[in-house]
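Database export, one record per block. Field names are fixed; values are copied verbatim from the stored entry.
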Amino acid sequence: MNALLTADSGARLDRLPISSFHRRILLLIGTGMFFDGFDIYVAATVLGATLKSGFSTMGQNAQFMSVTFVGMMLGSFMTGFLGDRYGRRFTYQANLAIFGLAAIASAFAPSMTVLTLLRFIMGVGLGAENVVGYSTMTEFVPPAARGKWLGGMNVIVVSGLPVAALLGALIIPHFGWRAMVALGGLGALVVWYLRKSLPESPRWLESVGRTAEAEALLESIESEVSEQHGSLVAPVPRCSAPPSTNLGSLLSPALLPRMIVGATTLIVMNTLIFGFVTWLPSFFVQEGLSMVTSFRYSFIMSLGAPLGSAIGAFAADSWGRKPTIVGASLLTIVPGGIYPFIHQPAALITIGFLLTIPIYILVATLFAIYIPELFPTEVRLRASGICNTFGRGATILTPFLTVALFRSYGLRGVLSLMIGFLLGQVVVVLRFGIEPKKRPLEDLEPG
């Protein structure tokens, strides 16, 4: 193997055909992130049950959600620096263990105060998993398939929403909300054990000077892929000046617009998810529906989440990232403007389902695909972590704002806030966004 190939992990990975290696990576990362999504979305069913049983109040539920964001903000920030310093593999194993153990402990919480404290610890792991999982997968998948594969992984993640809603409807009425919390924790720990075999990213190894390890890993990957596809085509060498890895480089003229796009879009998406989607069962209970009916409505509407993510996965590669983001933002506004005025049950569920689809087109395109692509390997986790920190941090106040708007104006007030955020997102993406469709990661580096 000549020296040029030894120092070109990106080119060697990008020319590999999709194989069992990629499917194994997707399964190991995606399964862990499924439980990440499950544990995030389980809050909707758990809080509906704790509210109905008198274990909590609407105010305590808002505190619970707010503390979750504080933990996720801290986890997002920390994992960016840890992932760029100690590697992707170390970071995603550590955060999976954190939220798995905290989830199991939450099942035994004697009060809402203790449950909220444990939720903060869970939040640290949950915030970290979202950053490192998508970024790691981005570094393994070739550019021609990157959108579909990252979007496909998001389908796995957001499937946690309908699964949590369905299991909530089946489990909570008979076994209580504690069983739901424990289930997510046990699943996370099982995946933690299975994921110990997941390899480190060769791109990261090379970026920190561990070229020999990157070379050994690349040879192993190439050997596995060539057994299935025969001789591999030669990689196209890429020569580029190494980008700066200090924190100040994220504020440079080249990267600052990308940071603005990342932070803005994640603020909007966190507000949509945690200011509306996860509050649906509580909204329904407050409007007089039974807990079982509330869960049934939420489950049917939540089926739009994996469908939306699947659409986002194909649209991002077919239409491009920016057109998909702008189009889905506008499509969210239309049913969002209609939804507060619907009261007939069948129409309520239908419009809610149609509202969920474009929201999760955005979730797939932004969280899974677009944000990790914006930044060079050397600072990918750091930059993604900071953008996620803004997203999580801005929504610390969202639960309290949601409750205040709902009490004063009902769903009309909550959705007016969401529509305003979406319009701002469209403007920022059109003004500052780049288009990474089917381009190698190294070609996206500034300069």
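Remark 1: The longest helix spans residues 20-53.
Remark 2: Residues 382 and 405 are 34 Å apart (CA to CA).
End of record.
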